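Structure first, sequence second, as always.
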């Protein structure tokens, strides 16, 4: 763990990004890379709390920043028919009453 540094982590993070001309594919891969980075940082923070790991500080990963402006909420909406089917499938039939 002593060889882990900011430059290596940033290189790893950048290696997760799709290399191509499709801007949406690049954006999506950056958003995915951010989620993976979040998990890796959590894992490293957990390891830091155990002194037997020999990790003395969190500078290597604390300074690595996620890609900015790549998270987009999913625009998934139920159709009227889907909403009715979902309400109709509710086990509590009073739920469907207005």
């Amino acid at each position: 763990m002593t060889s882990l540094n900011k430059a290596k982590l940033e290189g790893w993070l950048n290696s997760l990004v799709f290399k191509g001309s499709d801007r949406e594919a690049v954006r999506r891969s950056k958003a995915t890379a951010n989620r993976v980075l979040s998990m890796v940082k959590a894992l490293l923070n957990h390891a830091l709390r155990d002194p037997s790991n020999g990790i003395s500080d969190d500078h290597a990963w604390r300074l690595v920043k996620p890609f900015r402006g790549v998270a987009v909420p999913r625009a998934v909406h139920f159709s009227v028919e889907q909403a009715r089917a979902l309400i109709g499938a509710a086990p509590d039939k009073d739920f469907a009453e207005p």
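Margin note: Residues 13 and 42 are 15 Å apart (CA to CA).
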